[in-house]
Amino acid sequence: MKGPEKGSPDSLLFDFDGVLADTERAHHLAWNAVLEPSGIQFTWDQYVKECIGIADAMVAERLGLPGAAEVCERKRARFRQELEERPPFLPVTVELLRELATRYRMAVVSSSFHSEVRPPLERAGLLPLFETVVCGDDAQRLKPAPDPYLRAAELLHSTRPLVVEDSDAGVASAKAAGFEFVRIASAAELARAVRNALRM
Predict the structure, then answer these.
(1) Contact yes or no for 173/144 (Cβ under 8 A)
(2) β 11-14/180-183 pair status
């Protein structure tokens, strides 16, 4: 398959949660499980408004939780357990990524940690499709700062990346980096939105 045409994106930078992976319900369940002893529970609407695209440490800080670091680690462990029990990738997403990898350099850019992002990608056989993975433990400043997307573009030697995002923080990060972006509402929209953007 031929490569990108002149003037089109020379790389694709994908957010993970809610874009590549249908993981937001797993995050929601994990947060409520670890917060239950504190008497705190997120409704789905509250979770969408206050947590999507936001690093765990920032969520814990906003809640004023004592022992926030330990709470975040327990939340991440519960989240990893959820993903092991319920693989988060839609078949149409797997098919799309395998096709795109023959034409574009690609990266995953997430505020989550490598321990949350890499294992599900490995289990699904998708990790080799990405030239790099930039996570919350790689960038000095997280989304909505531009640092994660700038770092990914630097690693790919990309000058015209296309960012695919689902959150306000992620879109703000892409804009601050000066990159074109496509926003989707859920992982179920990924294939259609990307194919439309790339005229596939």
Answers:
(1) yes
(2) unpaired
Maximum Cα–Cα distance for the chain, whole Å?
56
pLDDT, tens digit (0-9, with 9 covering 90-100), for 153-187: 999 999 999 999 999 999 999 999 999 999 999 99
Q: Which helix (H) or strand (E) holds 161?
A: strand 161-165
The C-alpha atoms of residue 157 and residue 105 are separated, in whole angstroms, by: 9
For residue 73, which amino acid is it? E
Distance CA 26, CA 70 (A): 19
Distance of CA 80 to the CA centre of its chain: 15
Q: Could you give the C-alpha distances from 176 to 120, 142, 143, 147, 173, in angstroms and in order?
A: 29, 12, 10, 9, 5
